[in-house]
Amino acid sequence: MPFFRPFRLERFFAAHEFSAQHLLCTSDCETMSVRELLALEPESEERLLALRLGYTETRGDPGLRADIARLYTGLSPDEVFVHAGAEEAILNLCLAVLAPGDHVVVNFPCYQSLAEIPRALGCAVSPWRFREENGRWRLDLDELDRLLRARTRLVVLNLPHNPTGALMPRADFERVVDACRRAGALLLVDEVYRHLERDPERRLPSACDIYENGVSLNVLSKSAGLAGLRIGWLASRRADILDEVAIVKDYNSICASGPSEVLAGIAVRNFAAIAEKNRARCAANLGLLAAFFARHPGFAAWSDPEGGSIAFPRLGPDAARAFPSSEGKGGDAERLALRLLADAGVLLLPGAYYDFDPAYFRIGYGRASMPEALKALEAWVERQGL
Length: 386
What we know:
41% helix; Aspartate Aminotransferase, domain 2
């Protein structure tokens, strides 16, 4: 379909994700079986088995929306809109609020749909760039002020950030809200990695809790590790926006899956415990990654992620020499990744799939299989003398 440019990251995963022996680039956390999820609330099993498989409500099951609303401060169920995953929510929101000629500011690098959908709709899109400085990835707040225009309709943030793991300080986040308020812009915050902060004290408030024109995006795929449920949502106090989203949704999924909504309710009611278990796993795996990078500085180096389940290292000098970029500027992580996949069955995600410096690559650390995948990577690195 020429309307959208090909989603490069998703095409890469379609080619390799389900055949690679070791996935070391996944963005989601460890999942669980239906049996394990039902065990959290045994009484829910009968409700699931008795469910009639008809249509569900466009905005989501009222009970599920009430459960989700309790994840926020003073939010009502009518201020939550359930979608078939975060991707549908992004699409429907953009179709609902954006028009040709609007201006959108999007943090960069980003998950491609956050910038590509506005572009395809005829909007002017300005990247607000994360920069790696002194061991941290940062956004320049003064740059945001320079990017905002009279026709800025939407500012898009993803925190904790995919792929760098960056997490904005609370004071900076409040400055972003103030800037959006002055500009009269909506603020969409992709919060799918919220609750995976290395330091829970640094957890930011949700956009819909701190800004009257804020829209929070979340999903059960990442922090909860339940990607197969395909349940995400938008949360906002802007009832008019959610009404427009409802009109759009009638033209795609219409409603979510009933069985998924029942299972999602269990997950949401137990979300804090599920996410904390995954946060602890991420912390343990981060320790293994840090030790690996310390042992192999010639292979790669990173700025420690501050949250989420992914990081964005850069090839070190030895790897850059072994896998040089065709542009002659540093290494080519895609060349390395394809060789690594062929030799050892380990899959990394090249930074080029974020339209970023090809010397970077994404590594994931939210799954239980990550230590085994890291061992396979290290064995290959040592065989290559990197």
